[in-house]
Amino acid sequence: MAPPGIKGRFVLFALLVIALFLFVRLEGYRAPSGQLSPIQQAKAGTSNKVSSGPSLTGHAIAPKLGNATVKAELGRAAWKVLHTTFARFPEKPTPDEKEALRSYVHLFQRLYPCGECAEHFGKVLAKYPPQVSSRTAAAMWGCMVHNIVNKRLHKPEFNCEDIGDAYDCGCGDEDTKDTGRSEGVDV
Ligand SMILES: Cc1cc2nc3c(=O)[nH]c(=O)nc-3n(C[C@H](O)[C@H](O)[C@H](O)COP(=O)(O)OP(=O)(O)OC[C@H]3O[C@@H](n4cnc5c(N)ncnc54)[C@H](O)[C@@H]3O)c2cc1C
Ligand SMILES: *[C@@H]1O[C@H](CO)[C@@H](O)[C@H](O)[C@H]1NC(C)=O
Q1: What is the CATH number of the domain that holds 92?
Q2: Tally of domains within the chain
Q3: Domain residues for 99?
Q4: Residue 107 is assigned to a structural domain of this protein
Q5: Which residue out of 116, 121, 153, 161 has the highest number of ligand 1 atoms within 8 Å of its CB and is therefore the one to mutate?
Q6: Based on the domain organization, do 30 and 102 belong to the same domain?
Q7: Is 59 within the bounds of a domain?
Q8: Rounded CA gap, 50 and 41, in Å?
């Protein structure tokens, strides 16, 4: 039997070690790799970036579509939205705008209403992540991944040099910051 003094000191020491361990763990949680805590992120409005946002590369969400007619119609509409989005993306995007496009493309894939298409397209994105540095980069990337899908479906390859003309909607390049704001208030 150890004298009570020694035993008491041992218990105190053990408690200290546990407290230190918990402190380090909490610190790690508060600042994962030098970033803001989830609470601080939520307050700053950037919570979708790290832990609390949806997974950008998770499983395809929609069920199998099957019907080939619907699948093709949906595909034509979807490609139109994607290519037009890239054609109207800023040539010099801000970091926030780049992040928005990157997330959009990934979630577009995850939520694409044709589950089996989304499954395949997820593999394409894993190999060729969206290029978001500029309008040109995004448009070229969009053309390239569409060509990968074309190839798999035995469709003709599209010449990506024509991408600029193909998706120039003729709708001009107005200052979207202004129009966006005024239209936003009316809704
Ligand atoms: C993300 C995604 C995944 C898909 N996965 C599948 C799938 O797994 N199985 C399936 O059956 N269908 C899939 N589809 C649908 C498929 O890609 C076609 O949209 C559909 O088969 C209709 O083909 P389409 O011949 O009318 O031309 P689409 O491929 O729909 O193209 C529409 C038009 O875009 C132009 N275009 C063609 N290639 C390019 C390019 N590289 N860049 C820019 N413009 C181009 C042409 O003018 C073409 O007529 C997918 C669609 C999307 C958006
Ligand atoms: C596929 O969907 C179209 C449009 O809704 C429908 O007309 C057609 O009958 C469907 N085909 C099959 C095989 O279910």
Answers
A1: 1.20.120.310
A2: 2
A3: 68-172
A4: yes
A5: 153
A6: no
A7: no
A8: 9
- C-alpha span between 101 and 82 (Å, rounded): 10
Residue 57 counted as domain residue: no
| pTM exceeding the 0.90 threshold for the entire prediction | no
162-175 in b/e burial notation, b at 16+ Cβ within 10 A?
A: ebeeebeeeeeeee
Nearest to 76 by CA among 104, 114, 105: 114
Which residue type occupies 146? Answer: H
How far does residue 162's CA lie from ligand 2's centre (Å)? 34
- Return per-residue pLDDT of the chain as tens, 187 residues: 445 566 666 555 565 655 655 554 554 444 444 555 555 555 555 544 556 689 999 999 999 999 999 999 999 999 999 999 999 999 999 999 999 999 999 999 999 999 999 999 999 999 999 999 999 999 999 999 999 999 999 999 999 999 988 898 777 777 655 554 445 455 5
Residue 102: inside a domain = yes
Pocket test for ligand 2, best of 64, 65, 67, 114 (most atoms within 8 A of CB): 67
> Is the same domain home to 36 and 106?
no
Q: Both 90 and 132 in a single domain?
A: yes
Distance CA 171, CA 177 (A): 16
Kindly state whether residues 83 and 165 are assigned to the same domain.
Answer: yes
